Amino acid sequence: MSDFQLTAIGHIQSPYKQKFAIPRQPRLVPQAKAKLVFAADFNREEFVRGLDEFSHIWLLFRFHETADKGYSAMVRPPRLGGNERKGVFATRATFRPNAIGMSAVKLEGIEYKNGQLCLLLAGIDLLDGTPILDIKPYLPYSDAMVDATAGFADTRPETQMTVEFSPQVQAFIEQQTNFPELHDFISNVLKQDPRPAYKKQKEGEQSYGMTLYDFNIRWQVNDEHNYVTSIEKS
């Protein structure tokens, strides 16, 4: 009973190509659009018949990039600045005994094109290529518990970070007609302040880079201000 196998039903095509810059919870960046592409054995519309009646769904997935790195009984949640330890089961850390995660995301549509079944999602917080283990409809009457408390993570994470784009970057973004929400997407990712906790304590200007969709983006952080210096196709 202790050993069993799980089969991925599909994988995520996500704008997040690396762990860095992924929001630490779903729906913090609503402009983060993704697709769930079904694997061959589940690539039939019968599997999702009726799912379009729901606005949101739960995704159960595997932390595929860290699954082979083992797990820890105690972890340092970023929400606490990386300075305090909590039991792994009191957090949503990736280093878990079975490397399983869950996200509640917005379902924007179901697509069946050229023989491939996909779910169109928004507010995603998953790395590109993430294997999906299961899908369940989100039930507001059962899943939204308005009197619930959440310990050290009881409120939505907020920062005072501001974002500014160089004129060249702004002009480039305005030319990307296939990505009408690119400006807001980048802004909201940076407002989440994706830097490691120890970096946030350092003074002076810091430079960073990330890849969203197929764009390489570079920016500088000075105090609580982000200045996006360059963007180019990868």
Largest sheet: 6 strands, antiparallel, barrel
Mean pLDDT, all residues:
93
Helical stretch count? 4
- Looking across the biggest beta sheet, what order are the strands in? 1-2-7-6-3-8
Strand content: 25-35%
What's the multimeric state?
single chain
Give a brief outline of the structure.
With 234 residues, the chain is mainly β.
SSE layout and pairings?
Elements: E1 10-13, E2 33-38, E3 56-62, E4 74-75, E5 86-87, E6 100-113, E7 116-122, E8 131-137, H1 140-143, E9 162-165, H2 167-174, H3 182-191, H4 197-200, E10 206-212, E11 215-222, E12 225-233
Parallel strand pairs: 9-12
Antiparallel strand pairs: 1-2, 1-8, 2-7, 3-6, 3-8, 4-5, 6-7, 10-11, 11-12
Domain TsaA-like: 6-147
Pfam families: TrmO_C (PF18389), TrmO_N (PF01980)
Keywords: S-adenosyl-L-methionine
What does this structure look like?
- This protein has 234 residues and is mostly beta strands.
- The chain contains four helices and twelve strands.
- It has helices at residues 140-143, 167-174, 182-191, 197-200, and strands at residues 10-13, 33-38, 56-62, 74-75, 86-87, 100-113, 116-122, 131-137, 162-165, 206-212, 215-222, 225-233.
- The strands form three sheets. A six-stranded antiparallel barrel has the order 1-2-7-6-3-8. It has a four-stranded mixed beta sheet with strand order 9-12-11-10.
- It is globular, with a radius of gyration of 19 Å.
- 21% of the residues are buried.
- Pfam families: TrmO_C, TrmO_N.
